[in-house]
């Protein structure tokens, strides 16, 4: 039997329970992972609360970001063998001792990449890379404004944009301004007067805006960027259409992970891009991990630890 975190009904963090179930069998093109660590993302709290419909009949598992060892391989030729260390995306839940994955959604984990970082970078990495591509930031040579620059997606976007040669301004709360500066951005405090603070640093406005905060900033961001085509949000679906802004959602527009990590992985390994893991929580305490996430501003990534790496 294998421990898996599931919920049988929508609700608060306490609906998460640990069930012991038979380990899943991988089908063609799939592998089963002995999970070392799994990332916790805000969307999983929304699914648990019932705000986003889970897939299929309950009870439901949670989680996508995963890192572990291959411990079973499905029928037919495959890319991986038992014992290989891999990471990226689980199929049908990552909060598990044993998780399934499509082999195409996995990459070999370099020895230099810590398990907790590997387990927390798939969704945020793909989102940051995809949205910067939509904004044409690579080779921009101009100024990018990132709202929510201290969050999971925002922090990666800041670092990738800096590597790509952009000047980056990043908004954040007072407690995270130094962290934003450490990422390579010029920090701007949230709250009333943020537009004036941005204009003090960039009197002619900015060339592009990534909204990873969803704090009702789209109208002002369009004005700063000179048009809605220069703004992308991942956090304010409700108001995006009103302002003519692109709302980019990974479930619809996800890029191939090989493309994303072809660019991102070397930077993670050599230290040009860093992922800060702020909370490491045992699998059995998944409810506590969700409480931390829902409290807001966790200060970095949240990872469930499952077994030693």
- What is the terminal separation in angstroms? 20 Å
User: Based on the structure, what is the oligomeric state of the protein chains?
Assistant: single chain
Radius of gyration: 19 Å
Please work out how many helical segments DSSP would assign: 11
Largest sheet: 7 strands, mixed
The CATH first-level class of the largest domain comes to Alpha Beta
Order of secondary-structure elements: EEEHEEEEEHHEHEHEHEHEHEHHEHE
Integer count of domains: 2
Q: What class do helices, strands and sheet pairing give?
A: alpha/beta
The CATH fourth-level homologous superfamily of the largest domain: Medium-chain alcohol dehydrogenases, catalytic domain
Low-confidence stretches: none
Mean pLDDT: 94
Strand fraction: 25-35%
At CATH's second level, what is the architecture of the largest domain?
Alpha-Beta Complex
Give me the count of strands: 16
What overall geometry do the principal axes of the alpha carbons give? Answer: globular
Q: Helicity level, as a percent range?
A: 25-40%
Polypeptide structure, described:
The chain has 309 residues and is an alpha/beta fold. The chain folds into two domains: 2-121 and 275-305, Quinone Oxidoreductase, Chain A, domain 1; 126-252, 3-Layer(aba) Sandwich (Rossmann fold), CATH 3.40.50.720. Helices cover 31% and strands 27% of the residues. Strands 3, 5, 6, 7, 8, 15 and 16 form a seven-stranded mixed sheet that branches. The longest helix has 14 residues, at 122-135. It is globular and about 60 Å long. The relative contact order is 0.16.
Notable traits:
Rossmann fold, 2 domains, 309 residues, 11 helices, seven-stranded mixed beta sheet, 27% strand, Quinone Oxidoreductase, Chain A, domain 1, alpha/beta, six-stranded parallel beta sheet
């Amino acid at each position: 039997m294998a421990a898996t975190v599931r919920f049988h009904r929508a609700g608060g963090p306490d609906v998460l329970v640990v069930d012991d179930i038979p380990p899943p069998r991988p089908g063609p093109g799939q592998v089963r992972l002995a999970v070392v660590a799994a990332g916790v993302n805000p969307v999983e709290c929304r699914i648990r609360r019932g705000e986003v419909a889970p897939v299929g009949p309950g009870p439901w598992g949670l989680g996508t970001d995963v890192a572990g060892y291959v411990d079973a391989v499905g029928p037919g030729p495959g890319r991986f063998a038992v014992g290989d260390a891999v990471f990226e995306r689980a199929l049908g839940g990552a909060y598990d001792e044993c998780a399934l994955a499509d082999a195409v959604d996995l990459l070999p984990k370099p020895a230099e990449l810590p398990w907790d970082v590997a387990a927390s970078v798939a969704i945020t990495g793909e989102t940051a890379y995809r949205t910067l591509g939509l904004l044409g930031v690579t080779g921009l040579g101009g100024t990018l404004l990132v709202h929510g620059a201290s969050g999971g997606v925002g922090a990666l976007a800041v670092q990738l944009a800096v590597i790509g040669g952009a000047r980056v301004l990043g908004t954040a709360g007072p407690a995270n301004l130094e962290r934003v500066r450490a990422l390579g951005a010029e920090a701007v405090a949230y709250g009333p007067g943020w537009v004036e603070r941005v204009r003090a640093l960039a009197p002619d406005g900015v060339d592009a805006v990534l909204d990873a905060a969803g704090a009702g900033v789209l109208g002002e961001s369009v004005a700063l960027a000179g048009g809605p085509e220069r703004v992308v949000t991942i956090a304010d679906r409700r108001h995006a259409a009103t302002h003519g802004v692109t709302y980019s959602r990974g479930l619809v527009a996800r890029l191939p992970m090989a493309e994303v990590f072809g660019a991102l992985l070397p930077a993670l390994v050599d230290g040009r891009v860093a992922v800060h893991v702020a909370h490491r929580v045992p699998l059995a305490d998944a409810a506590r991990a969700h409480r931390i996430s829902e409290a807001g501003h966790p200060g970095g990534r949240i990872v469930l630890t499952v077994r030693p790496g």
